[in-house]
From TrEMBL:
Domain of life: Bacteria
Domain HTH luxR-type per the UniProt entry, residue ranges: 808-873
Organism placement in taxonomy: Bacteria, Bacillati, Actinomycetota, Actinomycetes, Kitasatosporales
Stated name of the protein: LuxR C-terminal-related transcriptional regulator
Record carries keyword Iron-sulfur: no
Comp. bias (Basic and acidic residues): 791-805
Family annotation (SMART domains): HTH_LUXR (SM00421)
InterPro entries reported for this sequence: AAA_22, P-loop_NTPase, Sig_transdc_resp-reg_C-effctor, TPR-like_helical_dom_sf, Tscrpt_reg_LuxR_C, WH-like_DNA-bd_sf, WHD_MalT
Keyword field contains Ubl conjugation: no
Record PROSITE patterns: HTH_LUXR_2 (PS50043)
PANTHER family referenced in this protein's UniProt entry, alphabetically: DNA-BINDING TRANSCRIPTIONAL ACTIVATOR DEVR_DOSR
Keyword terms: DNA-binding, Transcription, Transcription regulation
Annotated stretches, region: Disordered: 783-816
Pfam family, one: GerE
Length: 878
């Protein structure tokens, strides 16, 4: 443990300016669970919060932790948090425990820590300084859970240059976040004058105005100017020169900083100005000398222009570094690129490939930059990483003359990221013969691009070959590849699953998508895992299990919430599945709303599965609204234009079966049969529709009935498909005066009831209505059916939530703990938005859970659900 990291710094006594207005802001801010102090380097964030702690008057004891990049391992982070609390608060019992490994922390430790915080007589304040280093998604989730489970007893103060991964938008919406931003941290004119005075500079109002205007209230800039002017014979005249023009401040500081430094120091400062942070060994690599450590340490000791960091690195003041870079480029432009290439090699050799890649690209060393991306197995970051837009824009500048294999593969990945699959594939085909067989990174990069292109082009054979090759290469890749860059293999699995789905190979698609859904938790895999779960939900729906599909979407939503995935970046497949399952329950308005979200959400999907699925569900919506011919026109347009260049037997089957249903709805059974003449019907739901068309047309009835009986008796067939098969068998039996029609209808209703699948009965509405008119008891037993399908009740309907003995009957399926939490909020008359804010969920997730509650409790709205749950004692404290 570095003890200095768990103690706040001491503000310098002589030059430090206490800022009462901001201290008062922090006093008010800490009354909320989370406070964010956010601003650029040199804004005075750290010293402000340290002074606030030193002044006292907090709501309770406080702990301090200065974060470092190495703290991104859960065990390390929580060990330091524990030490910070023990140092600042004391009394932390041994029973809370400590992480045993750097890379892991037991959830039970966090539960014990939360319990200890909740048991304290006063709230605890925990300050996390330099929180921009906290970029591990799992850590952010754990910290968020601690904030949530301590319910305001922990007051978290986050100090940093950028926003942490915590769900700040939820805290803000719930009124649980206080913010001190760059505009608040900027010095006003009085404070600018006070800082100058602290440095012994008593100057007039015009000079103060000039300084304030030049640095826009930037605290470090004022201090730099004050330091530079201290030795001047006439400080006022000295500072007055900065008002000469836009570049005057740069020229002024450059001259005054470098003028007093010896030649080796000037040379090191100029060369290292290309870096954000500099290590003494890296400085030696850039200068060709061995004096980097001595010079950097001396600069740190002498003045404020260089800051020593806890990990052995140094940081030049950003303002000074920017000025030095401009001077270096103006004086020796050719040297800048050479220095960047040298820095790139050193950084790459020392495990910092991201910084190395940026320097190589800035120097125009594109082959080196591309090779760094490929060799680190990081090509997937162009498609799935948080930095994907910047990386794509960076490599879009790569000139066409770069033909090295790594450069070509990166270029192909950029095209893939822009959904230009054919172009990406042509590039890989051109470069693949030149790839050395023993170069695993290059080979795996080619396989990655091929599977991505296969998904967009709808080519399962290509995806199969590429994914099989990737699995072979995975054995030759570094063992820590899934941990360092999980997005690469996750993308390959997800793309394979989508391509297999496009060809109707559902079992194989499930296996591939399940691998993607179980990918390691990381920011780069958050959307991929969410998308894979939603595609698995789509397969559940296609197999006739709408209830399973909806539960899988809820699981995907919870995964997205845990990963703080913004609603507008979630997959379109989610809303596609919700629209489809809503239609199965005959909830037309909800289906329409889900389809509307697909078109108004984020960027559109460009893979054929989404295009086909959207067209088919829209056509089914038209059918539900009584517009079969509109549905047929939409299906034909999709077949001829949107999917003309990438058809599959499965896509033709989906379109034909939906068109068959449209013809049946329009009363054209012969046309319905004709649509299917040249299309194979393999899927169970397709077999049901085809059998219904043949029965309606009076063609091959015995074969159709045999197929329906086989589906009825197959336990793997989904509830929606079995319901339709039973209904068709019931109608056929009734048409032949058979004795089993009532039994088959009863079975159909029992199969549909748990998921309230009204749509199959709506499709056979005339027959169902006539039949139930003669079976009033059966109709009353299934009050979940739409009222227009049931005969008018002569007696008041019995309470469906009470058994024969009058006691409350249990729900058809147990409520989950999350559903119970949402019901408790609904019982307090909270709106959907208020429930979302209280439970840190998205409003769409709350709506999905409420729909599930209504389905399980056989209720129509949240008010009835609350009443029913109360009567069933489901809301009692556990």
């Amino acid at each position: 443990m570095l003890i200095t990291r768990v103690r706040p710094p001491c503000p310098p006594a002589a030059a430090f300016l206490r800022r009462d207005r901001l201290l008062d802001r922090l006093d008010a801010a800490v009354l909320r669970p989370v406070t964010l102090v956010n601003g650029p380097a040199g804004a005075g964030k750290t010293l402000l919060v340290a002074d606030w702690l030193a002044r006292g008057g907090l709501p309770g004891p406080a702990g301090w932790l200065t974060l470092e990049p190495s703290d991104n391992q859960p065990g390390t982070f929580w060990a330091y948090v524990r030490e910070a609390l023990q140092t600042g608060v004391a009394g932390l019992p041994e029973e809370v425990g400590a992480p045993a490994r750097a890379e892991h922390v037991e959830p039970s430790l966090l539960i014990r820590l939360a319990a200890w915080i909740n048991a304290q007589p006063r709230p605890l304040v925990l300050v996390l300084d330099e929180c921009e280093h906290l970029d591990n998604l799992r850590l952010a989730e754990q910290l968020h859970d601690l904030v949530r489970h301590t319910a305001g007893r922990l007051r978290l103060v986050l100090v940093g240059r950028s926003e942490p991964l915590l769900p700040l938008h939820r805290y803000r919406a719930a009124g649980e976040l206080a913010e001190v931003r760059a505009a608040d941290l900027a010095l006003d004119r009085a404070e600018t004058a006070a800082v100058l005075e602290r440095h012994g500079l008593r100057v007039g109002a015009s000079t103060v105005e000039a300084v304030h205007h030049a640095v826009s209230g930037w605290a470090a800039g004022v201090r730099l100017l004050a330091l530079a002017a201290q030795d001047a014979d006439d400080p006022e005249a000295y500072l007055g020169r900065i008002d000469a023009g836009p570049g005057a401040l740069s020229d002024f500081l450059l001259a005054e900083v470098l003028r007093t430094q010896p030649a080796p120091t000037q040379d090191l400062l100029l060369r290292c100005s290309i870096l954000g942070r500099v290590h003494p060994d890296l400085a030696d690599a850039l200068t060709g000398r061995r004096d980097g450590r001595r010079i950097l340490d001396q600069l740190h000791q002498d003045n404020a222009f260089t800051e020593a960091l806890p990990d052995g690195w140094y940081r030049l003041h950003p303002m000074l570094a920017g000025i030095l870079r401009l001077h270096l480029r103006a004086a020796t432009p050719d040297r800048v690129d050479e220095l960047r290439v040298r820095a790139a090699h050193w950084l790459a050799d020392h495990g910092q490939y991201r910084a190395a890649l940026d320097h190589a690209a800035e120097a125009g060393a594109w082959e080196l930059a591309a090779r760094l991306l490929v060799d680190q197995f990081a090509l997937g970051e162009l498609v799935a990483g948080r930095d994907a837009p910047r990386l794509c824009a960076l490599f879009a500048r790569m000139p066409p003359s770069e033909h090295a294999p790594a450069a070509e593969l990166v270029r192909a990945a950029v095209h893939l990221a822009h959904d230009e699959a054919a172009t990406a594939l042509r590039i890989v085909e051109r470069v693949e013969p030149r790839l050395p067989a023993d170069q695993t990174p290059l080979q795996l990069a080619a396989a990655f691009v091929q599977t991505g292109a296969a998904r967009l082009l709808g080519s399962a054979p290509l995806a199969d070959r590429a994914a099989r090759r990737a699995r072979e290469l995975e054995d030759r890749a570094p063992a820590d590849l899934p941990e360092r860059h999980p997005e690469l293999l996750t993308l390959i699995a997800a793309d394979l699953g989508s391509a297999l789905l496009w060809h109707g190979r559902l079992d194989e698609a499930c296996r591939a998508l399940d691998r993607a859904a179980r990918a390691p938790v990381a920011p780069t895999t958050a959307r991929l895992r969410h998308d894979a779960l939603c595609r698995l939900a789509l397969i559940d729906y296609l197999r006739g299990w709408p209830g399973r599909a909806e539960r899988r979407v809820r699981e995907a939503d919870e995964e997205a919430d845990r990963s703080s995935l913004p609603p507008d970046s979630r997959t379109e497949v989610r809303d596609l599945v919700l629209a489809a399952t809503a239609l199965e329950r005959d909830e037309v308005a909800e289906a329409r709303e889900s389809l509307h979200r697909m078109t108004t959400g984020g960027a559109p999907e460009h893979d054929p599965v989404v295009t086909l699925g959207s067209s088919v569900i829209r056509a089914k919506l038209h059918l539900a609204q009584g517009r079969p011919d509109t549905a047929l026109r939409l299906l034909e347009e999709t077949r001829r234009h949107e999917l003309a260049d990438r058809p599959s037997d499965w896509s033709r089957e989906r379109l034909a079966v939906t068109a068959c249903a449209a013809h049946l709805a329009a009363g054209r059974p012969q046309a319905a049969v004709a649509v299917l003449d040249e299309v194979p019907t393999r899927a169970p739901d397709s077999v049901v529709v085809a059998a219904g068309a043949r029965l309606a047309a009076g063609r091959d009835e015995e074969s159709a009935l045999a197929e329906l009986r086989a589906l009825r008796d197959d336990p793997a067939v989904g509830s929606a498909t079995r319901t339709r098969a039973l209904l068709l068998l019931a109608q056929a039996d009734a048409g032949h005066d058979g004795p089993d029609s009532t039994r088959l209808l009863t079975q159909a209703l029992a199969t549909a009831e748990p998921e309230r699948l009204c749509r199959p009965f709506r499709e056979s509405a005339p027959w169902v209505r006539r039949r139930l008119r003669h079976l009033p008891q059966l109709a009353r037993a299934h009050s979940w059916l739409p009222g227009d399908l049931r005969p008018p009740a002569r007696d008041p309907d019995p309470d469906p939530h009470r058994g024969a003995d009058g006691e409350p009957a249990p729900p058809t399926e147990p409520l989950t703990e999350r559903e119970r939490e949402i019901l408790l909020c609904a019982a307090r008359l909270l709106s959907t938005q208020e429930i979302a804010e209280e439970l840190f969920l998205s409003p769409n997730t709350v709506k999905t859970h409420l729909k599930s509650v209504n389905r399980k409790l056989l209720t129509a709205n949240r008010r009835d659900a609350v009443r029913t749950a109360a009567r069933l004692r489901l809301l009692d404290a556990k």
